[in-house]
Automatic annotation (TrEMBL):
Organism field: Mesorhizobium retamae
Keywords tagged on the record: Ion channel, Ion transport, Membrane, Potassium, Potassium channel, Potassium transport, Transmembrane, Transmembrane helix, Transport
Membrane topology listed for this record: Multi-pass membrane protein
Cellular localisation: Membrane
Pfam families recorded: Ion_trans
Transmembrane in keyword set: yes
Protein name: Ion channel
SUPFAM superfamilies (UniProt xref): Voltage-gated potassium channels
Length: 264
C-alpha cells in the first residue's frame, strides 16, 4: 500500500476553511450557529454535572472511561475555541483558558492529580463568563452581574466542599461523606457552626477561617449585585466604560452619545 502526502497548500486551505466555519458557528447569529452554541452550553453543563458527581461516580468501574471521555470533550472545546479565535495568543492568556487547561490535566492524569480534582468545578466559573452564554440572554442582560456573583458563590462552595472532602474525609468515600463535607462548608460559610461536625487540627481551623472570610465576602458581593441600582453592559465606543444606566443617552465618563439597545 502506498501512502501519498497531500501538498502543504491543501492542508492550509483545509485549516482555513475549518477556522472560518468554527468562527461562524461560535460567533455567528444564523440558526445553525444558534443551535451549535446552545449545544455547546448543554455539553458544558453536562461536564459540570459530572464534576459535581465525581465523588460518587469514582467508585464505578467505568469511571476512568467517563473521565477520559470528558477529557476528549474539554480538549475538543479548547481546540475549537483556539481555531475560531482571531487572536489565539490573547485567548490563551485569559484566566478561563488557564482554568480549562488545568482541568484537562486533572482529567488526563486522574491518579497523579487526584487530590486536585476538586478544582474541576472552576469550569462553572469559566462558563459563567462565556460570551456565548450571554449572547442569547440579551433580554436578561441586567441580571448578568447578579448571576455571575451567584455563580462565584456556588463555585466557591463546591471548591471548598471538594477540598474538605479530599483532605479531611480521606478515609471515607461516596455520597454520604460528600454530603458531610458540604454540610461543614455551608455551616462554616454561613457562620452557623452547629458543632456536630468539625474539622480537626490546626489545618482544619485554618481551612474554616479561610472558608468563612471568602464565603462572607462572596455573600456580600452577591447582595451588592442584587440590591444596587441596575446597570446594563454596553461598552462606550470612546472611553470603553462598560456599565451604564439603562436609559443613559451620554456616557457619564466622556460624554459620548450612546445608543443602548432596549426591548421597549
Amino acid at each position: 500500500m502506498i501512502f501519498r502526502l497531500e501538498p502543504a497548500w491543501k492542508w492550509g486551505a483545509f485549516l482555513a476553511r475549518l477556522r472560518s466555519r468554527l468562527r461562524r458557528l461560535h460567533y455567528g447569529a444564523t440558526p445553525a450557529a444558534f443551535r451549535f452554541q446552545l449545544a455547546a452550553i448543554a455539553v458544558d453543563l453536562a461536564i459540570i454535572a459530572f464534576f459535581v458527581a465525581t465523588p460518587v461516580l469514582q467508585e464505578w468501574q467505568s469511571f476512568l472511561w467517563l473521565d477520559y471521555a470528558i477529557a476528549i470533550l474539554v480538549a475538543a472545546d479548547m481546540a475549537a475555541r483556539l481555531l475560531a479565535s482571531t487572536d489565539a495568543w490573547r485567548l490563551i492568556k485569559r484566566p478561563a483558558m488557564w482554568v480549562d487547561g488545568f482541568i484537562l490535566l486533572t482529567l488526563l492524569f486522574p491518579a497523579a492529580l487526584a487530590n486536585l480534582a476538586f478544582l474541576r468545578i472552576l469550569r462553572l466559573w469559566s462558563v459563567s463568563r462565556s460570551g456565548a452564554l450571554w449572547r442569547h440572554l440579551k433580554r436578561v442582560e441586567v441580571w448578568r452581574e447578579p448571576v455571575q456573583a451567584f455563580v462565584n458563590l456556588v463555585t466557591f462552595l463546591f471548591v471548598a466542599t471538594g477540598f474538605v472532602y479530599t483532605f479531611f474525609f480521606r478515609n471515607g468515600s461516596g455520597f454520604e461523606d460528600y454530603v458531610d463535607a458540604m454540610y461543614v462548608t455551608v455551616a462554616t460559610v454561613t457562620t452557623t457552626g452547629f458543632g456536630d461536625i468539625v474539622l480537626p487540627g490546626v489545618a482544619g481551623k485554618l481551612t474554616a477561617i479561610v472558608t468563612m472570610i471568602v464565603g462572607i465576602s462572596l455573600f456580600m458581593r452577591l447582595a451588592q449585585a442584587l440590591f444596587r441600582p441596575t446597570k446594563v453592559h454596553f461598552p462606550c465606543p470612546r472611553c470603553g466604560l462598560i456599565r451604564h444606566d439603562p436609559d443613559a443617552v451620554h456616557c457619564k465618563a466622556c460624554g459620548q452619545i450612546l445608543n443602548i439597545p432596549n426591548n421597549e
